[in-house]
């Protein structure tokens, strides 16, 4: 697993891969603010010759609009490097229904545009008897659009959701996401969508990999239940960063299906000198941190006066807890301090 240093080189994590598949919200930006270290780190990734694809569950914007937004934040990006759940949903609809079929779009103009570009006819009313309802996030959505969706689905239309993310990360904390809006319709109908396109389903990752013809892709995300589970479903290695919704406590407690391959504080973990956990029957060591199996717990201690970043301690703890399921405790004052900083008991 990775630490949070900021120098690129042959021993960096990303040097083992030829493509990085990046989530956006909570990884590259939070609302209208770029995440610290993102611009510098992604520039170093490109300098190392590794391709980049931005893969987002958010269906609010077109790929071109997403790329333009990234560029305004200082992140190098092109439209053909962006994969959105709106694109995935439109492609799925085009496979399932004849050209010219009407689809009720509950979402943004970008989602409607993708549906139209796939040869289908967007509509905003159940009265036109659409064959399907596609639902994606848009901040302007309200009761009238949700009501039309409920009526159309009750009348027999298939129901496709671009994603089920309950929240959107923001600089003000988590805000309601598409999953919360889907839940309103689900509560009305007493059922769930027929299909979900976005992560943790593997389709968006598979589309991005096909575009790049990559052989060694790495998924990077902040959400265990979408980005990391999606990577695991697609059979891809993953890096979890702590700049979005996932906390250290949630990471340590993660069940197997949502455990990442690597952990980093932020995107600098892609280009930092790589520190692998050293494990044996007695415990795990990463950098200047040692975790021992002792007295029915995993006990964290510092092995020198300056043990290094807390992300190294978290990496060691994840490896130990995932192996044993034991609770965490501090073995010295340095460990107690870093556990408190990570929001962990100790």
Automatic annotation (TrEMBL):
Domain GCN5-related N-acetyltransferase-like: 287-344
Any one GO cellular component localisation term in the record: cytoplasm
Record GO terms (molecular function): phosphatase activity
Organism domain of life: Bacteria
InterPro entries: GNAT-like, HAD-like_sf, HAD-SF_hydro_IIA, HAD_sf
Official protein name in the record: Acid sugar phosphatase
Organism: Actinocatenispora sera
Species lineage: Bacteria, Bacillati, Actinomycetota, Actinomycetes, Micromonosporales
């Amino acid at each position: 697993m990775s630490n949070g240093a900021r120098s690129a080189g042959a021993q960096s994590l990303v040097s083992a891969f030829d493509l990085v598949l990046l989530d956006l919200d909570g990884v590259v930006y939070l609302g209208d603010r770029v995440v610290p270290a993102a611009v510098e780190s992604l520039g170093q990734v490109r300098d190392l010759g590794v391709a980049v694809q931005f893969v987002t569950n958010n269906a609010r914007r077109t790929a071109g609009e997403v790329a333009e937004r990234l560029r305004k934040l200082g992140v190098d990006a092109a439209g053909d490097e962006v994969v959105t759940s709106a694109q995935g949903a439109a492609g799925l609809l085009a496979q399932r229904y004849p050209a010219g079929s009407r689809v009720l779009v509950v979402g943004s103009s970008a989602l409607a545009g993708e549906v139209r570009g796939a040869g289908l006819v967007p509509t905003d009313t159940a009265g036109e008897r659409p064959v399907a309802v596609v639902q994606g996030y848009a901040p302007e959505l309200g009761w009238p659009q949700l009501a039309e969706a409920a009526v159309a689905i009750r009348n027999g239309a298939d129901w496709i959701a671009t994603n089920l993310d309950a929240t959107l990360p923001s600089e003000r904390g988590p805000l309601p996401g598409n999953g919360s809006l889907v839940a309103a319709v689900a509560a009305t109908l007493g059922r769930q969508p027929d299909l979900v396109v976005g992560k943790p389903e593997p389709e968006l990752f598979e589309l991005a990999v096909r575009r790049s013809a990559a052989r060694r892709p790495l998924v990077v995300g902040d959400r265990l239940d979408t980005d990391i589970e999606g990577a695991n479903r697609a059979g891809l290695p993953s890096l979890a960063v702590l700049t979005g919704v996932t906390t250290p406590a949630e990471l340590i407690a993660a069940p197997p299906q949502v455990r990442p391959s690597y952990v980093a504080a932020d995107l600098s973990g892609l280009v930092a000198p790589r520190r692998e956990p050293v494990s044996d029957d007695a415990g795990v060591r990463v950098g200047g941190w040692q975790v021992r199996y002792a007295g029915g717990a995993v006990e964290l201690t510092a092995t020198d006066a300056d043990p290094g970043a807390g992300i190294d301690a978290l990496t060691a703890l994840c490896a130990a807890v995932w192996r044993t399921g034991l609770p965490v405790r501090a073995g010295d004052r340095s460990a107690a301090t870093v556990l408190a900083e990570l929001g962990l008991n100790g």
